[in-house]
């Protein structure tokens, strides 16, 4: 639902082509409708697997309260098209602003930049800079954020760009382990555009 780059190929559901009734689709409404609801869904054919999933969800008590399900159903029936247009337009604006900042500030140091077409992440691979939690890169950001011995306990910390080190996104003993130490996942999902642009200078 969060495909906001008009140049990207749209996602196509496989369910219409599923003559064998073996395909299932998992999705979430938490990124496009109401983050606080944390509602997901499963689409697929009736049968033992679907019945087992319904039963397990009911037994474990993981299903959303009925009034929340009813609200989501109402919004999906009547408002989802305009909601998706608005959400995707907002994420597109953020993606473009962040990509511009990445190119201006980090471009010379990057080997590769991916993402920014769907969802709200960019995946960066640096040429030489390491990004793992033991790296100087991580330590500098941590120190500038006011976490290390600077006597500002209780004061508001400085804002910083949040990222997930790439080593958490790859298998620790896989082929990408070494490359993962020079990677990061950067989120642009939570800030508005003026704040994003301000952070990049």
What is the topological layout?
Elements (H helix, E strand, L loop, with lengths): L24 E4 L11 E4 L4 H13 L5 H13 L1 H26 L4 E6 L5 E6 L9 H9 L18 E3 L11 H4 L2 E5 L5 H8 L1
Helix pairs in contact: 3-6
What does this structure look like?
- The chain is an alpha+beta fold and 201 residues long.
- The chain has 6 helices and 6 strands; from the N terminus they run E-E-H-H-H-E-E-H-E-H-E-H.
- The chain has a 4-stranded antiparallel sheet, with no helix packed on it. It has a two-stranded antiparallel ribbon with strand order 1-2.
- Strand 3 and strand 4 form a beta hairpin.
- Helix 3 runs parallel beside helix 6.
- The longest helix is centred in the middle third of the chain and has 26 residues.
- The radius of gyration is 21 Å and the shape is globular.
């Amino acid at each position: 639902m969060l495909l906001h780059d008009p140049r990207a190929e749209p996602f196509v559901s496989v369910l219409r082509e599923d003559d064998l009734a073996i395909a299932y689709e998992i999705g979430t409404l938490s990124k496009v409708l109401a983050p606080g609801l944390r509602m997901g869904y499963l689409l697929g054919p009736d049968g033992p697997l679907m019945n087992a999933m319904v039963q397990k969800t009911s037994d474990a008590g993981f299903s959303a309260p009925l009034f929340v399900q009813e609200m989501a159903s109402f919004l999906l029936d009547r408002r989802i098209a305009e909601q998706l247009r608005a959400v995707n337009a907002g994420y597109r604006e953020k993606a473009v602003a962040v990509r511009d900042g990445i190119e201006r500030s980090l471009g010379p140091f990057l080997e590769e930049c991916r993402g920014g077409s769907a969802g709200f992440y960019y995946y960066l691979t640096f040429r030489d800079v390491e990004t793992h939690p033991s790296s100087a890169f991580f330590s500098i950001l941590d120190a500038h954020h006011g976490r290390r011995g600077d006597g500002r306990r209780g004061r508001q910390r400085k804002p910083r760009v949040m990222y997930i080190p790439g080593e958490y996104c790859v298998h620790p003993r896989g082929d990408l382990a070494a490359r993962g130490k020079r990677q990061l996942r950067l989120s642009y999902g939570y800030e508005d555009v003026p704040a994003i642009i301000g952070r990049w200078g």
